Amino acid sequence: MKNDNDNSSPTRPRVVIVGCGFGGIEAVRALSQAEVEITLVDRTNHHLFQPLLYQVATAGLSAPAIAGPIRHVLRSEMQRGKLTVLLGVVTDIDTTARAVVLDGHERIGYDHLIVAAGATHSYFGHDDWAAHAPGLKTLADAFDIRRRVLLAFERAERKSEGAQRQSCLTFAVVGAGPTGVEMAGMLAEIAQHTLHDEFRRIDSRRARVVLVEGGPQVLSAFSDKLSRKALDQLHALGVEVLTDAKVTAIDAGGLSYDSPRGPQRLDADTVVWAAGVAASPLGLALAASTGCALDRAGRVVVEPDLSLAGHPEIHVVGDLAAAMSHRKRGEPTPVPGVSPAAKQMGRLAADNLLRRLRGEPTRPFHYADYGALATIGRRAAIAMVDLPVLGRVQFSGMFAWLFWLFVHIYFLIGFRNRLVVLTDWAWAYFSFERQARIVAEPHAPRPTAPS
Amino acid sequence: MKNDNDNSSPTRPRVVIVGCGFGGIEAVRALSQAEVEITLVDRTNHHLFQPLLYQVATAGLSAPAIAGPIRHVLRSEMQRGKLTVLLGVVTDIDTTARAVVLDGHERIGYDHLIVAAGATHSYFGHDDWAAHAPGLKTLADAFDIRRRVLLAFERAERKSEGAQRQSCLTFAVVGAGPTGVEMAGMLAEIAQHTLHDEFRRIDSRRARVVLVEGGPQVLSAFSDKLSRKALDQLHALGVEVLTDAKVTAIDAGGLSYDSPRGPQRLDADTVVWAAGVAASPLGLALAASTGCALDRAGRVVVEPDLSLAGHPEIHVVGDLAAAMSHRKRGEPTPVPGVSPAAKQMGRLAADNLLRRLRGEPTRPFHYADYGALATIGRRAAIAMVDLPVLGRVQFSGMFAWLFWLFVHIYFLIGFRNRLVVLTDWAWAYFSFERQARIVAEPHAPRPTAPS
Fold first, then answer.
1. What is the model's pTM?
2. Residues of chain B positioned with their CB less than 8 A from the CB of A105
3. CATH of region A14-43+88-121+278-358, choose from 3.30.200.20, 3.10.150.10, 3.40.250.10, 3.50.50.60
4. Chain B: closest CA distance from residue A317 (Å)
5. ipTM score
6. CA distance to partner chain A, nearest, from residue B158 (Å)
7. Are A115 and B187 in contact (CB under 8 A)?
């Protein structure tokens, strides 16, 4: 067993932060000027700009364009000499001994802990669906989806005309939230434009992109009006949208679903899962150790100041937290699982931690909601924005798309990545080409019978 | 079983080209204006600019910067309507029935065949070394090496001071040909500059990069003078060079080698294999089927016109061919395994194929050798160039490095990639940062005892 934090000064309080997503990074930044010894732990070596992950999955961007090495992203914080970054998996949290367990054996002691471990996809108890319908949370997921999509067109080119070929050319996306809509819109653009004159035997424009949604409308977090606009834009891009379609089975050949017209079947070689999100399993570890409550999605119920009940030394932020936004007037409202909320939580948790060290009272979390945006495809997006004087403004189409572009470029971490992404997008917009259409792994013949 | 080439016109001769490296792509281009039906088969979906693959392995470039989707690279040839591109593995060649076998079951008939299947790495009969010392031929190889290198530094940060940490920080490169020298130079730059202030517990500059060469000098294809210059430049970059060091074993902990001083051991977590090259196993298939001779490296011995003895309908080009360069005067000389030679062979094979179709005599292969270049690291390279009046000119250092840069950017396929690579390099040069330091796969704890 190693010493806990071998480099730490005995005089500084030890803060451990788990996860380097939006919440974790903001917490590090907010703490880096204080007299605390910080250890940041993550299972990857990069901070991922997750809102653009679908662009990697659909071959529009390369991985380095939206992912920055943690050590590089935090290099100025690092140079202050109070931050240690460790690559490892937190397998348990011992809240009694105040230590996180790394990779099952290495213990890192803490005086204060910020857990920002995020979320993963949930198949609602059908874990066997994962093999046939990858979700989109990590770069490895994105590469998996990219490979499946590009190779499906390649397989179609080698099949004779018929049902098998059409199944290769059918892409189902389950879940019409922001990720599902983005994926469906991009897949349609790939089929309609990017690949359309690059095959000899197939016409890529005959590919079907089917968006399968269990509820009555797409992008249900938005107003009915914007949701209908989004539906119109999806149709214009060539996406088929099935609403009130509840998936009952997913296998290697496609999916089955219940619709108001009864049980249905969709043959599709490629299925992408964008339906369910569940909190990181570290929520379970915290619940077992502290008795804290979890909500239905496995998220940790936190106090107004984002700490755990009975454990003021532990804060939980981001997608792992079931947090409420507290206003001066009115009832608290639930905080959505979006990156601005995670950032704001990371900052407040750091601030409250420092307040506790100074013996000051902590502050409740208030989510400053500037609105919401969803992109659908080329020149297609919807937006609702809260403006100072005008109040809530809703708009869609080209202008919403440009606005979405601006916001996402602006928030991308690191000057260089912004430039790369902007160049790639400008190129893609005018050429219809997607620059990252690369499958790294060589093709291996499937061990199946001749077709 | 499928019909052979279902789209082919019965009147056009059917040409099958195996492999889309430099030789295969040039053959397609040279044939695309002729009245032939071309089928190009490759196991990947991209043409790879292999001379820059080490930059992907050392996190300087993203994969899409040096790889173009075949269908996009050949889109203008494709639009002439006589080219079919298929993704698949050629598992056999039936030269009697004149068909290549795809993925073990699909047969593609040909009237003429150009085999440009390239080379792979060879462990000289020690295939068990492959697991511990990846070679560098494909994008998947490059990602594997990138992951190993970056994670070795991460592991070192989690180890206590001592032999285990130093083993994490020791990088051995086996083979001091161009790839080995490039890899060693880049690894030294990463340790000395890129990472040097991004760790808390380790000093990345204490990493050792050891280049292990069995022969008496580095870059032995160059003159003694240039080889010595290269050695000086390697030393200046901080690379330790072991010559006359014959590797006898490679395992998870490092490698053993025989030196003039007797058997030695080098503990190194990361070993990169840049020593041996063997021709594609398709050479064996051709030999079994046609009785053609193979050389010691498994390359197919070809006629002066690059066809197979007794099989004028089959040409072999690129790294798979043991070809000779025929001059007007003097003895034929062996052709080196470099990309300009592969391109020239691809063009001549296509030209000779068309000559045969017209009933004209074929021409022998002459390798137009413009010289050779090897880069070593920042501002370090060696070059020998044949100039019209001056004859063979040798130079090294900054000027050779700029020349190398210019040549590689110039030959990169596709305007956009050139721009991307140039931007990335300019950024890397001034910032010392390497933009692709991303490991996609999340860390999984090793199932080993606590350390």
1. 0.92
2. 450
3. 3.50.50.60
4. 21
5. 0.90
6. 7
7. no
